[in-house]
Amino acid sequence: MKYENQKRKQREKKAGKTAIRLCAAGLAVTLILSAAGCKKKSLLDPKNPVSLTVWHYYNGSQQAAFDALVEKFNDTAGREKGIYVQGYSQGSVSDLETAVRDAIAGKVGADAMPDIFSSYADTAYEVEQSGALANLSDYLSDEELGKYVDSYIEEGRIAKDGTLRIFPTAKSTEIMMINKTDWEPFAAATGASLDNLRTIEGVVATAQAYYEWTDSLTPDVAEDGMAFYGRDAVANYFIIGMQQLGVELFKVENGEMTLHVPRKELYRLWENYYVPMVKGYFGAYGSFRSDDVKTGDILAYTGSVSSAMYFPDQVESDNDTHAIDYMVMMAPVFEGGRNYAVQQGAGMVVSKSDEKHEYAAVEFLKWFTQAEQNLQFGCVSGYLPVMKEANSTEKLDQVIGDQGLAVAPKTYDCLTTIFGEMEGMTLYTNKSFKNGSAARKVLEYNLADKAAQDRQAVIAALEEGKTLEEASASYVTEEAFENWYNSFCDALNAAIYQ
User: Fold this and answer.
1) What H or E segment, with its residue span, contains residue 304?
2) How far apart are CA 294 and CA 179, in angstroms?
3) How high is the pLDDT of residue 7?
4) pTM exceeds 0.90
5) How do 83-89 and 314-316 pair as beta strands?
6) Residue 204 and residue 227: Cα distance in Å, rounded?
7) What is the DSSP string of 261-310?
8) Is residue 85 helix, strand or coil?
9) Kind plus residue range of the DSSP H or E element containing 208
10) Which of 225, 416, 444, 464 is least surrounded by CB atoms within 10 angstroms?
11) Helix H or strand E encompassing 323
């Protein structure tokens, strides 16, 4: 018994020492982390503020909203922390990309690299390959990252080691905008239903019905039916359409991209875009489909959420001008397909410089993406906020009320429509890869350009007195698809493996 008591005391003494060592270790870790945090904070001095430059592509009301938030930051959190931000619009996205490339190359007359600049993933990937981007993971904890929409953070992990390079600041997806005023007489006459517009096949069928109905209104003129629908960003149609059908077009793993172009799925995309374009059920006439709604050439289109501010208040054609109302719906999905929607919109990247400037840059971006600031920007720009808590109608209404914001009804309706569907859909964007921008251009223009060219040939045949079926017959065959499919695959491979 005495021996057992001695052994027990030894075990208790040993356990006590272990506990002390663990507590000491834990305290040491806490002190180290605290010291690291203090070190970061000590980099900044409110009496000697760090000056940051931001390049972006915002213009008009978007630029005004961004500038107002920058001013607000400088007067509040920036003043307190010791950070001063100056924003500069570089014009268009392509102008910004050119300015960044010139700065990296050190071209004569080029400005120095900014501390922060707006960038889409493909451009950021290109800049990352040159080693010019800061590792944002060094300045953000897992808890902080967890507050952002997961797919937005994942998109920004473009470094080989998976660390963050793109800070999500404002995102977008696609919606369908409809000319409600001119839809109503068509629906009343034909029984067309908005429910049919929830699928891509339903949109095609509705577009055919609209073409035939408008053609019937002028019985003395043959084949003068009108297009119903158009689409911005045909590349999105390919990427998201294939994803809905269970195929990842550009599958990137460990930095290597594998191209998937199965005939069956691509035939469905061809059949539901090229064929109705050639037959005149779909249309694309101006720079954007909102332009085509304004001229009365189409009634509905799929485009970016941020395009809502450009949806016209009236139709202005050669023969008529009249006011129109609008409706907002989610972008259609392939029948039987998975509910994927495009994730798009540039984020902000931080130029690699020194710890002080990089840390200050991240502090500004963290402030800008807080719900109050991000929703304020979204109310003007139409962009979606990037933090999880901000993606709700309740939070949007709270910020509008607290800040007394005036929000355009179209923008509000688009944002709330998306918020209402967020839980049921999966946002997707392909990971970046070498020559990704060139591959996307093939998706954007290859089929769209062919459809436009072939539509002109069909119109010429109609003017010669042929029926629509006769004029379009040779363009919508299996052989026509095969010819396009082979040329499409060749163009993609040439772009990717150049």
Assistant:
1) strand 300-304
2) 9
3) 42
4) no
5) unpaired
6) 10
7) --HHHHHHHHHTTHHHHHHTSB---SSSHHHHHHTTS-SEEEEEGGGGGG
8) strand
9) helix 200-216
10) 464
11) strand 321-323
